[in-house]
Amino acid sequence: MKNESSVLLIFTGGTISMGENPATQSLSPLDSAQVLSFIPELKMLRVNISSVSFNPLIDSSDIQPASWVRIAEIIRGHYDSYDGFVVLHGTDTMAYSASALSFMLENLTKPVIFTGSQLPVGVLRSDAKENLITAIELAAARNEDGEAMVPEVCLFFEDKLMRGNRSTKRNTEAFNAFASFNYPELAKTGVHIRYASSYIHHEKTKQSFSIQKKLDTNIAILKIFPGITEATVKAILSITGLRAVVLESFGAGNAPRVEWLFKLLKNANDKGIVIVNVTQCRSGSVEMGRYETSINLQKAGVVSGYDMTLEATVTKLMYLLGQTNNVKEIRTQISIPLRGEITID
Ligand code: ASP
Questions:
Q1: pLDDT given at position 135
Q2: Is 32 in the pocket of ligand 1 (CB under 6 A)?
Q3: Quick one: which of 53, 102, 208, 274 is 20 to 30 A from 31 by CA?
Q4: Higher pLDDT, 186 or 145
Q5: H-state helical runs in the chain
Q6: Nearest to residue 29, comparing CAs of 58, 60, 53?
Q7: 154, 153, 155, 158: which is closest to 128 by C-alpha?
Q8: Neighbouring C-alpha atoms within 13 Å toward the C-beta of 33
């Protein structure tokens, strides 16, 4: 086994890459060398660290599917030269990016760890240092056989390593900003790093690593609320070019039993629009048919997203729509786990 692992840092932007201008006290992006100069402790890690950077660095609210393609291409371009990858990213859309990459990176056998911070790296009390140092340790970690400890797309924040496509930003303030509501953490960090080995996926395929770059964004999110009008639902379902809808329903996958809703959904479904039911609750799963208020959805052809996060559902749809025009196939694939994003008992 090699002594030192090598890790590639991919700087995309976000608060972690920002510093406070002492003159104006406002935050502005630093370059990757400046960010690293705030963390001299990195030299203490027995890891070979290199970096590549988006230019310019971006606030993650400006992340687009093209940015995910860029991250995927960087990983593919350096895949054989590194043991792991750390993506420095703004927190706002980090869960979307981690979810998207989990689908786009196929036959992954190396760690890809997203991290960021709530306070800029150059600010006293910043959480950037700990998050980045630990993310690098996690990306570099290998077992006695030399295999990666966490060969998945993950998100590390504060003290939790989560499966990327199970993570959600839950707090705009706390250092503990992310949670994985429906799947156990893959590792917990404290004095020691404790891996939850039985929850970590190890890819068994012999096929080589590849990336999938075609993403289709013709998707809408339809959040149900008491009082939602027929005109609103109709307007959303008649968007030109619409191919899929994420229906955010109540509780275990329920919606009002009004006839117009059933008809609009059925009509959209018959036209080939894929409608996926996910719950507005943070924890738990859609269970269509459990209540009478979800039977109409089933009858209309709506498919279950079970316990998928919104971020995973949106990005999985983009990925599936990019792969095929076969609506039946997309409806099947959306309801089965491709990268551990769904729990099916
Ligand atoms: N707006 C910032 C971003 O997502 C917030 C952060 O990084 O925490 O890029």
A1: 98
A2: no
A3: 102
A4: 186
A5: 32-37, 65-78, 94-104, 128-140, 230-237, 259-270, 292-300, 310-323, 327-334
A6: 58
A7: 158
A8: 0
CA of 329 to the centre of ligand 1 (A): 36
Q: And the tokens for 139? A: 């990306």
Catalytic residue among 12, 15, 91, 309: 15
Respond yes or no: is residue 15 known to be catalytic.
yes
Q: For 66-109, how does the pLDDT look when each residue is reduced to its tens digit (9 = 90+)?
A: 999 999 999 999 999 999 999 999 999 999 999 999 999 999 99
- Sign of CA pseudo-dihedral 75, 59, 242, 253: positive
pLDDT of residue 2: 56
User: HSE (CB half, 13 Å, CA atoms) of 5?
Assistant: 22
Q: How far apart are CA 247 and CA 263, in angstroms?
A: 15
Is the CB of residue 341 below 6 angstroms from any atom belonging to ligand 1? no
pTM: 0.96
Alpha-carbon dihedral of residues 121, 122, 123, 128, nearest 10 degrees? 10
Closest ligand 1 atom to 118 CA: 8
Nearest to 16 by CA among 171, 157, 120: 120
Could you tell me what percent of the chain has a pLDDT over 70? 99
Span from the CA of 57 to the centroid of ligand 1 (angstroms): 11
The predicted model gives 143-171 an average pLDDT of 96
> How far is Cα 179 from Cα 41, in angstroms, rounded to an integer?
27
Q: Where are the beta strands (DSSP E) in the chain?
A: 5-13, 18-20, 27-29, 47-58, 84-88, 105-106, 112-115, 153-157, 160-163, 168-169, 178-179, 187-189, 193-195, 210-211, 219-223, 244-249, 274-279, 303-304
Distance from Cα 302 to the centre of ligand 1, integer Å: 34
Tell me which of 17-21, 213-217, 240-244 is least confident: 17-21
Cα-based distances in Å from 115 to 89, 254, 302: 6, 35, 35
Give the separation between CA 274 and CA 259, rounded to whole angstroms: 20
Q: Residue 16: how many CA atoms within 13 Å on its side-chain side?
A: 31
What is the share, in percent, of the chain residues with pLDDT greater than 90? 88
